[in-house]
Amino acid sequence: MSNKQAPASAQLISESIGEILAQGTRGVLATVVESGASPLAVGAKLIAHESGEKVGGLGDATVDGAVAKQGIAFLRSRDEAKTFYVRDFAPELTTFAETRILFERIESEPRLVIAGAGHVGASLARIAALVGFQVTLIDDRAEFVERELFSAQSEQGIDLIAADDWQAAMGRAIGSGRGVSVAIVTRGHKQDEECLRATIKARPDYVGMIGSKRRTNIVLEKLREEDASENELQKVRAPIGLDIGAVSPEEVALAILAEIVAERRSGSGAPLSSWRRS
Predict the structure, then answer these.
(1) pTM for this predicted structure
(2) Residues 115 and 208 placed together within one structural domain of the fold
Protein backbone atom coordinates (compact mmCIF):
# COMPACT_ATOMS: atom_id res chain seq x y z
CA MET A 1 0.00 0.00 0.00
CA SER A 2 1.36 3.44 -0.97
CA ASN A 3 1.88 6.11 1.66
CA LYS A 4 1.95 8.85 -0.96
CA GLN A 5 -0.31 11.83 -0.25
CA ALA A 6 -1.45 14.90 -2.11
CA PRO A 7 0.06 18.19 -0.89
CA ALA A 8 -2.07 20.45 1.29
CA SER A 9 -3.51 23.64 -0.15
CA ALA A 10 -2.09 27.00 0.89
CA GLN A 11 -5.53 27.97 2.18
CA LEU A 12 -5.74 24.93 4.45
CA ILE A 13 -2.30 25.70 5.91
CA SER A 14 -3.18 29.37 6.37
CA GLU A 15 -6.45 28.52 8.12
CA SER A 16 -4.70 26.12 10.48
CA ILE A 17 -2.09 28.73 11.40
CA GLY A 18 -4.90 31.21 12.08
CA GLU A 19 -6.66 28.69 14.30
CA ILE A 20 -3.53 28.12 16.41
CA LEU A 21 -2.99 31.85 16.87
CA ALA A 22 -6.64 32.54 17.66
CA GLN A 23 -6.85 29.77 20.26
CA GLY A 24 -3.56 30.70 21.94
CA THR A 25 -2.16 27.19 21.40
CA ARG A 26 1.11 26.20 19.74
CA GLY A 27 2.13 24.31 16.67
CA VAL A 28 4.94 23.70 14.19
CA LEU A 29 5.03 24.41 10.48
CA ALA A 30 7.25 21.85 8.74
CA THR A 31 8.38 22.58 5.17
CA VAL A 32 10.47 20.45 2.82
CA VAL A 33 13.40 22.65 1.77
CA GLU A 34 15.57 19.95 0.14
CA SER A 35 14.11 16.70 -1.14
CA GLY A 36 17.42 14.84 -1.46
CA ALA A 37 16.83 11.62 -3.39
CA SER A 38 13.30 11.23 -2.05
CA PRO A 39 10.04 11.74 -3.95
CA LEU A 40 8.92 14.53 -1.61
CA ALA A 41 8.31 17.89 -3.24
CA VAL A 42 10.22 20.97 -2.14
CA GLY A 43 7.74 23.35 -0.54
CA ALA A 44 5.37 20.65 0.77
CA LYS A 45 4.02 21.65 4.19
CA LEU A 46 2.65 20.02 7.31
CA ILE A 47 1.36 21.64 10.48
CA ALA A 48 1.68 19.66 13.71
CA HIS A 49 -0.49 21.00 16.54
CA GLU A 50 0.76 20.51 20.11
CA SER A 51 -2.40 18.44 20.65
CA GLY A 52 -1.11 15.89 18.15
CA GLU A 53 -3.43 16.92 15.32
CA LYS A 54 -1.83 17.10 11.85
CA VAL A 55 -2.90 19.37 9.00
CA GLY A 56 -1.54 19.04 5.49
CA GLY A 57 1.19 16.62 4.53
CA LEU A 58 4.65 16.31 3.04
CA GLY A 59 3.72 13.59 0.59
CA ASP A 60 4.22 10.44 2.64
CA ALA A 61 2.18 9.32 5.65
CA THR A 62 5.13 7.66 7.42
CA VAL A 63 7.26 10.77 7.09
CA ASP A 64 4.33 12.88 8.30
CA GLY A 65 4.09 10.82 11.47
CA ALA A 66 7.80 11.12 12.18
CA VAL A 67 7.80 14.85 11.45
CA ALA A 68 4.79 15.44 13.73
CA LYS A 69 6.58 13.60 16.56
CA GLN A 70 9.73 15.65 15.98
CA GLY A 71 7.57 18.77 15.93
CA ILE A 72 6.42 18.14 19.51
CA ALA A 73 10.05 17.74 20.59
CA PHE A 74 10.91 20.96 18.74
CA LEU A 75 8.23 22.84 20.69
CA ARG A 76 10.01 21.89 23.91
CA SER A 77 13.15 23.64 22.70
CA ARG A 78 13.74 27.38 22.69
CA ASP A 79 14.23 27.61 18.93
CA GLU A 80 11.97 29.68 16.71
CA ALA A 81 13.13 27.88 13.57
CA LYS A 82 15.55 25.07 12.78
CA THR A 83 16.25 22.66 9.93
CA PHE A 84 16.72 18.91 10.32
CA TYR A 85 17.51 16.08 7.97
CA VAL A 86 15.07 13.21 8.28
CA ARG A 87 18.00 11.02 9.27
CA ASP A 88 18.42 13.21 12.38
CA PHE A 89 15.10 12.16 13.90
CA ALA A 90 13.96 9.10 11.93
CA PRO A 91 17.06 7.15 10.77
CA GLU A 92 14.91 4.16 9.88
CA LEU A 93 13.36 6.11 6.99
CA THR A 94 16.35 5.55 4.73
CA THR A 95 14.56 6.60 1.53
CA PHE A 96 14.11 10.08 2.98
CA ALA A 97 17.41 10.31 4.90
CA GLU A 98 18.75 13.30 2.93
CA THR A 99 15.46 15.20 2.91
CA ARG A 100 15.89 18.47 4.80
CA ILE A 101 12.91 19.94 6.62
CA LEU A 102 12.49 23.39 8.14
CA PHE A 103 10.61 23.49 11.45
CA GLU A 104 9.06 26.84 12.42
CA ARG A 105 7.29 27.58 15.69
CA ILE A 106 3.70 28.85 15.45
CA GLU A 107 2.73 30.71 18.58
CA SER A 108 0.88 33.94 19.29
CA GLU A 109 2.64 36.78 21.07
CA PRO A 110 2.79 36.06 24.80
CA ARG A 111 0.14 37.81 26.86
CA LEU A 112 0.66 39.32 30.29
CA VAL A 113 -2.22 40.40 32.52
CA ILE A 114 -1.13 42.66 35.37
CA ALA A 115 -3.43 43.29 38.33
CA GLY A 116 -2.40 46.52 39.98
CA ALA A 117 -1.08 49.67 38.30
CA GLY A 118 1.03 51.01 41.14
CA HIS A 119 4.76 51.63 40.75
CA VAL A 120 5.65 47.95 40.23
CA GLY A 121 2.67 47.14 38.00
CA ALA A 122 3.21 50.18 35.78
CA SER A 123 6.94 49.44 35.47
CA LEU A 124 6.21 45.81 34.65
CA ALA A 125 3.73 46.82 31.95
CA ARG A 126 6.25 49.12 30.30
CA ILE A 127 9.12 46.61 30.36
CA ALA A 128 6.93 43.73 29.15
CA ALA A 129 5.61 45.81 26.25
CA LEU A 130 9.18 46.58 25.22
CA VAL A 131 10.08 42.88 24.96
CA GLY A 132 7.03 41.93 22.91
CA PHE A 133 4.29 40.92 25.33
CA GLN A 134 0.68 41.84 24.73
CA VAL A 135 0.01 43.61 28.00
CA THR A 136 -3.23 44.23 29.87
CA LEU A 137 -2.94 46.48 32.93
CA ILE A 138 -5.89 46.52 35.34
CA ASP A 139 -6.62 48.68 38.38
CA ASP A 140 -9.74 49.69 40.28
CA ARG A 141 -8.41 53.24 40.48
CA ALA A 142 -9.20 54.83 37.11
CA GLU A 143 -6.60 57.55 37.54
CA PHE A 144 -3.86 54.88 37.61
CA VAL A 145 -4.71 53.57 34.14
CA GLU A 146 -5.20 56.81 32.24
CA ARG A 147 -3.66 56.78 28.77
CA GLU A 148 -1.55 59.90 29.33
CA LEU A 149 0.44 57.95 31.93
CA PHE A 150 1.46 55.50 29.19
CA SER A 151 2.07 57.85 26.27
CA ALA A 152 5.40 56.57 24.93
CA GLN A 153 5.34 54.89 21.53
CA SER A 154 6.27 51.52 23.02
CA GLU A 155 3.37 51.81 25.50
CA GLN A 156 0.58 52.42 23.00
CA GLY A 157 -0.28 48.73 22.79
CA ILE A 158 -0.84 48.36 26.53
CA ASP A 159 -4.52 47.66 27.17
CA LEU A 160 -5.60 49.78 30.13
CA ILE A 161 -8.65 48.71 32.13
CA ALA A 162 -10.36 50.49 35.02
CA ALA A 163 -12.08 47.70 36.93
CA ASP A 164 -15.38 48.09 38.75
CA ASP A 165 -15.12 44.44 39.78
CA TRP A 166 -11.71 42.79 40.09
CA GLN A 167 -12.90 39.23 39.56
CA ALA A 168 -14.95 40.05 36.47
CA ALA A 169 -12.20 42.17 34.94
CA MET A 170 -9.55 39.52 35.56
CA GLY A 171 -11.74 36.75 34.17
CA ARG A 172 -12.39 38.66 30.96
CA ALA A 173 -8.74 39.63 30.51
CA ILE A 174 -7.34 36.12 31.08
CA GLY A 175 -9.90 34.37 28.89
CA SER A 176 -9.01 30.73 28.25
CA GLY A 177 -5.65 31.14 30.01
CA ARG A 178 -3.69 29.66 27.10
CA GLY A 179 -0.48 31.59 26.47
CA VAL A 180 -1.28 33.96 29.34
CA SER A 181 0.87 34.97 32.31
CA VAL A 182 -0.68 36.78 35.27
CA ALA A 183 1.13 39.03 37.72
CA ILE A 184 -0.86 40.11 40.78
CA VAL A 185 0.76 43.23 42.22
CA THR A 186 -2.12 45.01 43.92
CA ARG A 187 -2.03 47.19 47.02
CA GLY A 188 -3.61 44.86 49.59
CA HIS A 189 -4.91 41.47 50.77
CA LYS A 190 -8.49 42.04 49.65
CA GLN A 191 -7.51 42.91 46.10
CA ASP A 192 -5.02 40.02 45.99
CA GLU A 193 -7.71 37.56 47.04
CA GLU A 194 -10.21 38.76 44.46
CA CYS A 195 -7.65 38.68 41.65
CA LEU A 196 -6.22 35.29 42.59
CA ARG A 197 -9.68 33.80 42.99
CA ALA A 198 -10.51 34.69 39.38
CA THR A 199 -7.07 33.76 38.11
CA ILE A 200 -6.89 30.20 39.41
CA LYS A 201 -10.29 29.48 37.87
CA ALA A 202 -8.96 30.55 34.45
CA ARG A 203 -5.77 28.44 34.82
CA PRO A 204 -3.25 30.63 32.97
CA ASP A 205 0.18 29.30 32.03
CA TYR A 206 1.81 31.33 34.79
CA VAL A 207 0.52 33.13 37.88
CA GLY A 208 2.54 35.00 40.45
CA MET A 209 1.63 37.28 43.34
CA ILE A 210 3.71 39.97 45.00
CA GLY A 211 4.12 40.35 48.75
CA SER A 212 5.99 39.00 51.73
CA LYS A 213 5.82 35.32 52.63
CA ARG A 214 3.39 36.19 55.41
CA ARG A 215 1.10 38.21 53.14
CA THR A 216 1.05 35.63 50.36
CA ASN A 217 0.45 32.78 52.82
CA ILE A 218 -2.55 34.64 54.28
CA VAL A 219 -4.09 34.98 50.83
CA LEU A 220 -3.38 31.39 49.82
CA GLU A 221 -4.78 30.04 53.09
CA LYS A 222 -7.94 32.11 52.67
CA LEU A 223 -8.57 30.59 49.23
CA ARG A 224 -7.70 27.15 50.55
CA GLU A 225 -10.45 27.57 53.15
CA GLU A 226 -12.82 28.34 50.28
CA ASP A 227 -11.96 24.96 48.75
CA ALA A 228 -9.92 26.39 45.89
CA SER A 229 -8.05 23.76 43.87
CA GLU A 230 -4.94 22.78 45.81
CA ASN A 231 -3.26 21.84 42.56
CA GLU A 232 -3.79 25.35 41.18
CA LEU A 233 -2.72 27.00 44.44
CA GLN A 234 0.56 25.07 44.32
CA LYS A 235 1.31 26.63 40.94
CA VAL A 236 1.15 30.19 42.27
CA ARG A 237 4.60 31.83 42.34
CA ALA A 238 4.43 33.73 45.62
CA PRO A 239 6.37 35.78 46.36
CA ILE A 240 6.69 36.50 42.65
CA GLY A 241 9.93 36.89 40.70
CA LEU A 242 13.54 35.77 40.72
CA ASP A 243 15.94 36.74 43.48
CA ILE A 244 18.13 39.41 41.88
CA GLY A 245 18.34 41.61 44.95
CA ALA A 246 15.73 43.99 43.51
CA VAL A 247 14.97 47.16 45.46
CA SER A 248 13.41 49.79 43.17
CA PRO A 249 10.02 49.24 41.47
CA GLU A 250 11.78 48.92 38.14
CA GLU A 251 14.14 46.28 39.50
CA VAL A 252 11.24 44.36 41.05
CA ALA A 253 9.44 44.50 37.70
CA LEU A 254 12.56 43.15 35.98
CA ALA A 255 12.77 40.28 38.49
CA ILE A 256 9.13 39.41 37.81
CA LEU A 257 9.48 39.50 34.04
CA ALA A 258 12.66 37.42 34.25
CA GLU A 259 10.74 34.64 36.01
CA ILE A 260 7.88 34.84 33.51
CA VAL A 261 10.28 34.55 30.57
CA ALA A 262 12.18 31.71 32.26
CA GLU A 263 8.92 29.82 32.78
CA ARG A 264 7.80 30.40 29.21
CA ARG A 265 11.14 29.43 27.70
CA SER A 266 11.90 26.62 30.18
CA GLY A 267 14.93 28.48 31.46
CA SER A 268 16.59 27.57 34.76
CA GLY A 269 17.18 31.11 35.97
CA ALA A 270 20.79 30.15 36.75
CA PRO A 271 23.75 32.34 35.67
CA LEU A 272 24.86 31.48 32.13
CA SER A 273 28.46 31.55 33.37
CA SER A 274 27.91 28.89 36.05
CA TRP A 275 29.59 26.20 33.89
CA ARG A 276 32.92 27.99 34.38
CA ARG A 277 32.77 27.48 38.13
CA SER A 278 31.50 23.91 38.22
Answers:
(1) 0.78
(2) yes
